[in-house]
Specification:
The protein is α/β, with parallel strands linked by helices and 693 residues long. Among the domains are: 163 residues, Toll/interleukin-1 receptor homology (TIR) domain (Rossmann fold, 3-Layer(aba) Sandwich); 131 residues, Jelly Rolls. The strands form six sheets. The protein has a 20-stranded mixed beta sheet. Strands 1-3-2-4-5-6 form a six-stranded mixed beta sheet, sandwiched between helices. Helix 3 packs parallel to helix 4 and helix 4 packs across helix 6. The relative contact order is 0.05.
């Protein structure tokens, strides 16, 4: 089974689902006509859409990739065509859609009846009376049960409000308006009727449109309203608006989903009684106080997204949203207060308060959120402390608290036994941290960011190196002088970031599992690759870093990728081929590709920035004949800490990663390197080496 998806960046990127729309259809019936046009229209209007391709189906079984896409989709468009029920694949896919909808009431299915009678689908008649909907006489119990499940799925989905395909239907009589010109026409002529259940308006296609109460008055069955920005908008989100009067009202009784980018009023409409609402998404709105004075019970509401609503001061009355699962307030820079009733949200799993720069404290009741798994506090620069009972949040798995005024991470964090990601970068405001608290209780921790925390060697507790689940460790911008050999105890560590540790003098050993080491701008690093003369000296007190690298590649993990970024202008002496500049060509002997001995390719590139720092598309690109790979460095340098000193990037690619390009047919290798994101980078020298057992 193969799948294709087109991803577009829009304001919906903050939504909790990966895909806006999942298309289910029978390819041989519709792929080359109707579905192609539908898919193109969805993508053009900013909907991140997954389109299943059944050309590689095998026996009707659904691949795990497809099941993941179904779980990660918000809206399902099912195109019922003449031969849909002939496909076990399609029926299993439909059953998976029904299953995920049963678990998540926020998901929506929209059936389309393509040249078929809805009643035939509903009752499995006509072309829907197939071998998959009518068991044969000798069918076993399992087959009969499966057929009953398929029939149930067909009936259930067909019973949702759908519509036959009729291009000549009057716009005002359609159930859904997708095209921005159709929306404009209906609103301008006030031809909307109760047939309209969904309006999807791309503001980037039709900016500064006026919505009036009269134009929407007759849309009594409106269930879906999405006023959004398409992928073509990359900046100036605040400038795209749909204008309404201060007394604007619209039918909301049946509303299930509301997405309104740049909602212009400071409160919801006075007649807003959307008791069926599942998600409210209003980025860049003008709302000032959400929930205040609200008497409506939003019992089905699971997600509230008010990101970048810069006038929002307070969020209150959570008693009206008892089933809320996601609350996203990122970038609400005027937010000063969160009502203590937030502690009553028993199902809240995600709380995003990133860049709420005016928020000075959190209510103690937040510690009652037993279901909370992810908490974002990064950029809350006025937040000076965390609640004392934070350790009660026993199911918290991710805590991001970068650039706050809280100081050192409180010891209570050690009680968060299920924590997997902890990020506490730059929280001192220039003050040196005391000794780090014990982390031994965080046995599930996978990623830890303690960068820019002003830590010295003595501040690290001995049990710091007992975080056996740790895969990524960021200690950049600190004052360490050495990386102790104890780091080898982190047996699962893949990424170690030490950039801007300007006092760092020594890296003695590396964990065998390490795949990436970033030590950029570590100007005191004594183990320069250029200075070592004996790479086999194992007993030397100052073990050569390039021997350590070679050991890591050749002996410990020859089947996994590895790269390192450090200051210096030298290439390790064990590199067989070196050239000045950014490219070289290496002739190969006829027997070079011995599958029993050849492990992979090691490349090296020395470069420097002149005056311009990386801006966009910040990658180091390496091309080996028809094989290419890259290393992103966009977050490595910043204007505050940047230097123009030369740096060396060394990377290893195992044979298995290159085999797709049939390297056994190569008789020479041309290696070339490029720095993207800058126009005046200096390419000093490069190297290439083949690694054998």
């Amino acid at each position: 089974m193969a799948s294709t998806s087109t991803k577009t960046s829009s304001s919906s990127s903050n939504l909790p689902h990966k895909y806006d729309v999942f298309l289910s259809f029978r390819g041989e019936d519709t792929r080359t006509n109707f579905v192609d046009h539908l898919y193109a229209g969805l993508v053009a209007n900013g909907f991140h859409t997954f389109r299943d391709d059944e050309q590689l189906e095998r026996g009707g079984e659904i691949a795990s990739q497809l099941l993941d896409a179904i779980e990660e989709s918000r809206v399902f468009i099912v195109v019922f065509s003449e031969n849909y029920a002939d496909s076990r694949w399609c029926l299993n896919e439909l059953l998976a859609i029904i299953d995920t909808m049963a678990r998540d009431v926020s998901k929506i299915v929209l059936p389309i009846f393509y040249h078929v009678n809805p009643s035939d689908v509903r009752h499995q008649r006509g072309s829907y009376a197939t071998r998959h909907t009518s068991p044969v006489e000798d069918a076993d119990d399992d087959e009969v049960a499966m057929i009953e499940d398929w029939k149930y799925a067909l009936t259930e989905v067909a019973n949702f409000s759908g519509y036959p395909v009729d291009p000549n239907t009057d716009k005002g009589m359609r159930s859904r308006l997708w095209d921005h010109m159709d929306v404009q026409d209906v609103l301008k002529k006030r031809t909307g009727t109760k047939s309209i259940e969904g309006i999807f308006l791309n503001l980037s296609k039709l900016n500064n449109i006026n919505l009036t109460t009269k134009a929407m008055k007759k849309m009594a069955n409106l269930r879906l309203l999405k006023i959004f920005l398409g992928s073509e908008v990359v900046s100036g989100e605040e400038d795209y608006k749909a204008y309404i009067s201060s007394d604007f009202e619209f039918p909301s009784w049946d509303l299930c989903y509301l997405h309104w980018h740049g909602y212009p009023l400071n409160s919801l409409p006075s007649n807003f009684e959307a008791e069926k609402l599942v998600e409210l998404n209003m980025p860049y709105s003008n709302i000032t106080n959400f929930g205040e004075g609200n008497m409506v019970q939003f019992s089905k509401l699971t997600a509230v997204i008010l990101s970048h609503s810069k006038n929002l001061i307070k969020v209150s009355n959570f008693s009206s949203t008892p089933n809320l699962e996601k609350l996203i307030l990122e970038g609400c820079t005027s937010l000063r207060e969160i009502d203590p009733s937030i502690g009553d949200l028993e199902r809240l799993g995600l709380l995003d308060l990133k860049e709420c720069k005016s928020l000075g404290s959190l209510p103690d009741s937040i510690c009652n959120l037993k279901s909370l798994k992810t908490l974002y506090l990064s950029g809350c620069s006025e937040l000076n402390c965390l609640p004392e009972d934070l350790g009660n949040m026993q199911h918290l798995t991710e805590l991001y608290a970068n650039r706050t005024a809280t100081g050192a991470p409180p010891p209570v964090i050690g009680r968060l036994r299920e924590l997997q990601i902890l990020s506490f970068s730059g929280c001192t405001g220039g003050r040196a941290y005391p000794s780090l608290f014990s982390l031994s209780g965080l046995s599930l921790l996978r990623a830890l960011d303690l960068s820019d925390c002003y830590w010295w060697d003595a501040r690290i507790p001995s049990d710091f190196w007992c975080l056996y689940s740790l895969e990524k460790l960021n200690l950049s911008g600190n004052h360490f002088t050495m990386v102790p050999t104890s780091i080898t105890e982190l047996s699962r560590l893949k990424v170690l970031v030490l950039g801007r540790c300007q006092r760092l003098q020594e890296i003695q050993q590396l964990p065998p599992s390490l795949e990436e080491l970033d030590a950029h701008e570590c100007v005191s690093l004594l183990t320069s690759l250029a200075s070592s003369s004996d790479v086999v000296e194992a007993t030397s007190r100052m073990m050569s870093l390039h021997r350590t690298i070679l050991e890591r590649i050749q002996d410990h993990a020859p089947k996994s990728e590895f790269c390192i970024l450090i200051p210096g202008d030298g290439i390790p002496e064990w590199f067989e081929h070196r050239e000045m500049g950014s490219s070289l060509t290496m002739e190969l002997p006829s027997d070079w590709y011995d599958r029993d001995k050849f492990l992979g390719f090691c490349v090296c590139f020395v470069f420097a920035f002149k005056d311009q720092l990386p801006q966009i598309h910040h990658d180091i690109l390496c091309q080996l004949n028809n094989f290419s790979f890259f290393y992103p460095y966009w977050d490595k340098w910043s204007g505050e800490h940047s230097s123009n000193d030369p740096h060396m990037w060394l990377a290893y690619q195992p044979r298995s990663g290159v085999d797709i390009c049939y390297p056994e047919a190569w008789n020479s290798i041309r290696a070339s390197f490029e720095l993207s994101g800058v126009t005046d980078a200096l390419s000093i020298k490069c190297g290439l080496h083949l690694i054998y057992k």
